[in-house]
Amino acid sequence: MIVGYHAGGLDEPDLERAARRLKAAGYGGVQIAGPIAKTIAQRDGWEAAGDLFRAHGLDVLCTWGANPALKEWADGERGQASFAKLRLCAEQARRAKCASLMLIPESGPKADADLLRAAGRQCAAFARRLHGETGVRLSVHQHRGGVVESLEEVRRFAEAFDGVSSALLADTAHLTLGGVDPAAFATEFAGRIDTVHLKDARGGAFAFPGTGTVDFAAFFKALDRAGFDGFAIADVHDAPHAGDPVADARVWLDRAWPRAAGVAASRNDL
Hints:
Blueprint: E1 2-6, H1 15-25, E2 29-31, H2 34-43, H3 46-55, E3 59-64, H4 70-75, H5 81-95, E4 100-103, H6 113-134, E5 137-141, H7 151-157, E6 166-171, H8 172-177, H9 182-188, E7 193-198, E8 200-202, E9 205-207, H10 216-226, E10 231-234, H11 245-256
Parallel strand pairs: 1-2, 1-10, 2-3, 3-4, 4-5, 5-6, 6-7, 7-10
Antiparallel strand pairs: 8-9
């Protein structure tokens, strides 16, 4: 397992300073987002960014990918601009030696079961091809208010996911706010979850870990039973916090999840 940090929580566009800050706090990886993502994109510096983070003992775990809509997935990629954008994102991730692209299904009216299954099958097939070409995995983020939100919607969409080229991202706050028990999600989709986002929820909004209603003890027990060995990412960029979110999120995680305590190894160290 690698413990990482969602860089959307860094008000830091300088990659060198960001890397030093994350390593000093005890992380072993980073999800590219926020100001540092803008810095990388502006410079087209994907290789350099990956090399810099790894030089500081940080793997590039995940970044964002352009995500086709369900009907586009179901129809296939031929002639559709969304897939060209997705392939470009995957190529950038490959250049940074990033493990996965995170995809967030669109918001809007709920889809019927047949469309969810058809789109999910095409997503899984596309992911197998893309992973074979680039080594980058597609990881779909169940999302509050999205068309893949409820447990049943995830079941349908992820039927063909293999956990290697196509996987699921479990976000404790989005699951909770979407009416899904994170522990039940971790149990049902064991083997297909490659990444977890760790943040809390309270009063319908995001909260810093340990200050809301998420039952992290049950979630971590479910991950341990499932033998989870993926990426555990502190995702606190949109959760109010008076202290240092980078250091404090790591301190909280070490206390809350015994198996994560002290874990900072990148893939290069394993």
